Amino acid sequence: MRALSTALRCDPNSRKETASAVARTAGESQAPAFRPGSLTPATIIVPTWALNRNAIQHALAQEGHFDARDDVGDGTMRLTQDQAAWGEFETLESALIKAGIAFDRLSDAKYEYDAEMRCFRPAAGVDGGLDVVVKTLQDHDPVISLSSLAQLAATEPLTLDAIRSYLALPRETVAEWAVRHAPTGAVLS
Question: What is the torsion angle, in degrees rounded to the nearest 10, for the CA atoms of residue 63, residue 65, residue 67 and residue 72?
C-alpha cells in the first residue's frame, strides 16, 4: 500500500530565503553566490495555447534553454530544465500570473532543498484564485507532517477530503483549466 502523503504550506520564495539564511549564518553579508545546490531540475506545466502569447514567449526566451518540451496531448505542455535556478522559473511564473494563466511547477529535491510543487489558478469571478506551494516526495506527491495531521485530526475527522482541503490544492488540473479558458480558435492538443 502506498504511504499517505500530503503537504505543508510554505513561502514560494523559501528556497532563496534558506540560501540567504545559510549565507548570513556563515558570516557572508550578502546573498550567496550561485552554488551548485541552487541549480535544481524543474518542470512547469502550462496550457499549450498560452505559449502563443507575446508576454509568455518573451518570458520563455528570458528563461533560456529548456532541456525538454513535451506536448502532453491534453492541451498542456511540459517544459523542463535540468538546471533551473532555485528549481523555479521566476520570469515565466511571473508572466503567467500577470496574464492570469494557470500552471503547475514541479521542483526536484536537491541538497538541502525538498521537492515541491507550486500550483497557480487565477481568480475567476468571486473565487479568490489559488497560489500554493507544497512540499512533495520526489515523484511530486504532496507530503504532510505528522504534527499537521494530528492538528487536523483534532478539528475534524481525518478523511481524504479533509486532507485535500487542508492542503488547498486546486480542484482542477491545468489541462481542465486550459480547456475551460481557451481563447476562441485555440488548438487544445
Answer: 60
Helix/strand/coil for 128: coil
Q: What are phi and psi of 82, to 5 degrees?
A: -75, -20
What average pLDDT does range 47-59 have in this prediction? Answer: 96
Q: Residue 123's pLDDT is what?
A: 86
Whole-model pTM?
0.77
Beta strands in 33-179 (DSSP E): 39-47, 68-71, 76-85, 103-107, 115-121, 130-136
- Would you give the end-to-end CA distance of the chain in angstroms? 35
Backbone angles phi, psi at 104, to 5 degrees: -125, 130
Quick count: other Cβ atoms within 10 Å of Cβ 180? 10
Q: Identify how many contiguous H helices and E strands the chain contains and give both numbers.
A: 6, 6
